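Incident log, entry 3
Record: PGG domain-containing protein (364 residues)
Problem: checksum mismatch between cached and fresh output.
Input:
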Amino acid sequence: MDQQFLMAARTGNLNLIKQLVDAETNILNATTPQGNTALHMAARFGHKDLVEQIINWHPNLIHKTNLNGETPFHVAAKAGRFDVILLFKATVEDIARVRDKHGDTPLHCAVRNNHKLVIWLLVDGDQEALRLVNNAGESPLVVAIDLGLTNVAHNIIFGNPSTLDHRGNNGQTPLHRAVLSRDLAIVDRILVLKPELITMQDGKWRNPLHYAVSLGDYEMVKKLLECNSSAAYQVDNNRQIPLHFAAKNGQVSLLKLLLNPCSDTVEMINNEQWNILHLSAKNGYMNVVLYVLDLPEAEDLVNGSDIAGNTPLHLAAMNFHSNVVYFLSRNSKVNIRVMNQNSQTALDVVYSIEDGGVGTKCNK
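Fresh output:
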């Protein structure tokens, strides 16, 4: 693209553009190294009069894409150019539905850059555009949630509640994403409108409660449990329930919160046949170990064997958690003589570890 022409397009110098076009009509087909036309440039910088003139001269440029597959609509939406979008909308049907190479619509671009007025201009009269997803399976609502744009997300849900039906490429619902973004306000709104989403599972079979517990977000977990405590019983693809995540992450407060309405989940095991004491012992969380030892079900948990025959004491020894080994081995409920499938007691495991055994590697 001629540099004088490029500068005129960037600055909105309509008179100079007219002179250059009069001298060489084909100059309007020129592009920058990234494939942007003069219309892209004028749209990006918000020069409405120049945009209108270029459309009159060369209307086909409206649908011309750059190397990113972006039309002038996309760049205007990305830059938040309300007047330019208003002009495009009066000229082109379905402006909010045009896609770039990533599958993003101008609406995705406007949401991603938090241009509220442009968002509502694009969806005015076309609420279904809010349901369109890009190549990554993201709807405009999910983009807003992921970026923490609470007000935008609220307005999208209000504008089209069916946006809550969306499931991404990983099977996650907007509630999953709101939990992962730790946006309690959006979570609360979604639970009011569509409470059944709490038990919806993603590609890993995890429901929103799994993720809230993994994040250690007490208030989020409390909110979800109050909505539907049955989510605490759902297993993921490794047969892990939310309680297991609390145990392996050392979250005693969450263990108490989860067990209060669902006390029988304490007995549940995952695919490795690990119970909550296995998980806490394996990861060296003394606070959880001590809490579990005080539970009425402790006697059933302390000597439970996994698929390899290992008890929580075995796992603590294998992972060099000497403090956990110490307390478990001195607890009257623990049978220190239990052997795993290698015919090893926990003490045998300690002796078999190289470099002096568990006593030389103590953490947590």
